[in-house]
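Input/output pair, single chain:
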Amino acid sequence: EVQLVESGGGLVQPGGSLRLSCAASGFSFSTSVISWVRQAPGKGLEWMSTIYSDGRTLFADSMKGRFTISRDNAKNTMYLRLNSLEPEETAVYYCARTRVVAGRWYDSWGQGTQVTVCS
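Output:
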């Protein structure tokens, strides 16, 4: 069974940082493409970043330079470092196994981890 479990969310002040983790099981993590997607209250899903099996990364323009994504294939875990967080980035953050044939789409999701940015 494919499983993705996010952790590391919480309450942080504006300008603060968090590191989110995504632990994977039930599939070949090291050969998989994984993405982070978030959903703010009352809004749609927003793609944030993707990391390929060879370590290449992609970021949404608004997140370049502030966030970093990495993976540890030995631990079947992916990480997202969030820096300089702003209140409007309060959202549920999801990791998703990603297919990159004919575009970018997601076939498995974690349950999400809540990030709340407020003072």
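Residues 41 and 91 are 6 Å apart (CA to CA). The chain is about 0% helix and 55% strand.
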